[in-house]
Amino acid sequence: MKYQTPTGMRDLLEDDLELFDKILKNAQKIADFYRFKKIETPILENSEIFEKGTGAFTDIVEKEMFSLTTKGGDRLTLRPELTPPIVRAYIENGMQALPKPVNLWYAGPCFRHERPQSGRFRQFYQLGFETFGAVEPVIDALIILTCYAVLKSLGLKNLVVQVNSIGCSSCRPYFKKTLTSHLKKSLSSLCANCKGRLKKNPLRILDCKEEKCERIKKSCPQILDHLCKNCHDHFKALLEFLEPAGIPFSLNPYLVRGLDYYTKTVFEIVQESGKSQGSLAGGGRYDDLVKLLGGKPTPACGAAIGLDRVVLLLKGSQEKKEKQERADVFLAQVGDLAKQKSLILLESFRQAGIDLAQTISKDSLSSQLRTASKLEAQFSLIFGHQEALKDQIIVREMSSGRQKTIALAKAVQEIKKRLK
RNA sequence: GCGGCUAUAGUGUAGCGGUAACACUGUUCCCUGUGGAGGAGCCAUCGCCGGUUCGAAUCCGACUAGCCGCCCCA
Fold first, then answer.
1. For a surface tag, which of A117, A126, A160, A379 has the fewest beta carbons within 10 Å of its beta carbon?
2. What is the pTM of this model?
3. What is the distance in angstroms measured between the alpha-carbon CA of A384 and the sugar C1' of B6?
């Protein structure tokens, strides 16, 4: 095969698209209920918003972005995630003046240059919720609840929210120092990757899955013990909202996430049991990002759901039903004159709201009727040269084979009556 | 970026050194204006390039892609 989709990118055919549509529909309802407004942003953005927003030392920015330079010299990047673009849009469209909180939701493709595997593509689809202008921990709970509700509405089982707090700009630097000095003691036992992380982003070491590092992690100071009072109270309050909301959650002190902008709450939703394919959704609070990207200091919180992964799970759970394509009525035509008059006839049925199928490019009557059978049409309209000359048409009841000739002008009316 | 496995019609498979087979789908015909059944035909330069060989879908090597792990995340 000469041409195929680029690595990690695929065509979405009807089977997939139906599931995507279903998720989107459910999300739309839930978003409406919780008063989120939909937003769409460009697929290309100025590279800087990711370098600053997502973070220069994140894997995403260091090695996973599809970037290009325009003829005019602008550096653009295919969005690897949507939070920084949404923040950009929030500022650019003057939403800072809107009554708070401002709730936005979105769905669309993102791009990351990674090695594809199960549930991971270079072009993948995210659906997310963002809320601006509220510091209250109940908002964090609401964002989690909203994501959880979307996943739940699709019938997914065994969902668990893993939560953690990674502190804020006033307490995290201290923790980083504490952690770094602790880790320096066992520097030689860290994996190569983490040795590098020690300077750039020591928190990420907590997230390392290498066995070596796993062992060291156990003896590490935990961030939850080093939060400032504000962060501590925020986290405690969040948990007190989740509990009665009936959302199953577990504390994961090692959850730090790979994006730089998070403050306080971070969370991921995973499906327990069954094959793990990474998280289904993830998000958190990002109180400093709006300011970082040039807006007024604005607290914010958001999350995104990985649609591809959800679709994968939905596909696995539903048994394949070969859905038969069907039609109520089928038009079979024979001869040039009949074919010429067929288009206007089709239009009159379409306008009357009657499902009239055809294979108008075909000439053979038998093959057309074979198709009519396959479509399980109740009636076929047979429009031959003789009928076309006299402006008549044959109505054939497929089950019995009884047929009668009627005036062409009465075809719509006749079929309407018979279908009842 | 690093590993493991794989690559034959649209789909699912067989073939394991002597120039492609089966099922389903599609399509044409048997039936120059009447379907559901039946029958016949057609639809593949065996992922790409190179090597070994008298001969390669089959063996070997590189490439490309896919799947699955790692990493990371959604």
1. A117
2. 0.90
3. 53
